[in-house]
Amino acid sequence: MTTITNTPTKRASIQQKQNAVRSRCLQNPRTFFTDAIPTVLIPPTIFTTLLLGLWTWKCFWIVVMQDKLLYIAWLPPFARSEQIADYEGQCGPVRWEGKQIRSLDGTKLTVCEGRMKSAVGSHVHGHSDATASLRDDLRNSDPTKPKKRVVICYFQGNGGSTPLRLPLLSDMLRTVTSATEDPSVEYIVTALSYRGYWTSSGRATQSGIELDAQAFLAWASRTYAGPDTDLRLVLWGHSLGSAIASTALATDLARRDGRESSVGAPISGLVMEAPTSSTKDMLISLYPQKWLPYRYLWPFLWNNWDSSRAMERMAKWRDECPGMEAEVEEDGDDEKTMAPGLGTVKPRRIHRSLPPILMLSAEKDEVIPPHAVDQLEADARRMGLVLERKDVAGAMHTEALVKVEGKRAVVNFLLSCT
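-> structure tokens emitted (418 positions)
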């Protein structure tokens, strides 16, 4: 009887113990993570894992969205809806007009053209219309002398729209026009809106912008050339635009054969305002901390603007053997090839020269680090390029032309190289 009565009690006790063990297992489940790592290291391990995950996530999107991050056509807000008329009152005697061209792949591009208005300029200085007429007569006084026309091809930085820069360009055009001593020289400023910028169509990419730059130079050569016009082009780039301008110059030179009859107007100078050496240096300047992984993403960039590489291409074009051309002499009976009826023909080496470069750097540039400009200058001098550098005291990234010494340096360069 005792055994029979105690059996239910034992079973109930065993059941209670099993339930308690099961409850403890559910409350404190044991995993490989908690078994392998000491309890004291679990919080820092979780924090480190989250930090690495966040870094990896941001690195991924920096690489994927690099076009949007580099070509900031959408800042400031409503930049693409701006009009030339919005800044017309700040442009003084310069008249701006929008023109439509096409890139080499057919993409529609917008170019702003700025010219001095003689009548407006005369009223500004208190002169009558007769003064403007006299100036026009001086320009045409010598019909045998070709009129010189200097076209400044401007390549903007990576942010904003073209109309935003028109007041600054107008001030420069007004200053250089008044500084020239030859009334027969005409200065014109043309500013390119890359694809994806302002009213230009398409999407901004490096390969596309390179095509835009070449189409821009070809259009300028065709539009402003004339049988009685001595046309000169000067390329002017700001920030990323300096890399675009130098790349365009190197590509344009590669298409030439070193002769006077080469296609396109001669390029007389290159202005690099607040220049950047490469997108790699830009990435490092944005993330100077060595412990951040973002500065090491440059191998994954497909936008590889590099001014140093462009200057190397220029130097290579200058130094490579351009071949020989025939030079005819009327007299001479030495051992040279004789051309019937032409006299003596001897080979002559064609000398190639590069346009001078003005490097304008801002002393307090908050975007481009000083060492990038120093390295760019050192590369140019090592290659034997004709380079002039001007450091504008107290200027920030967009203020080099606002300061008097920066404006004076650009004006003197334009007058000397053209």
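The longest strand covers residues 229-238.
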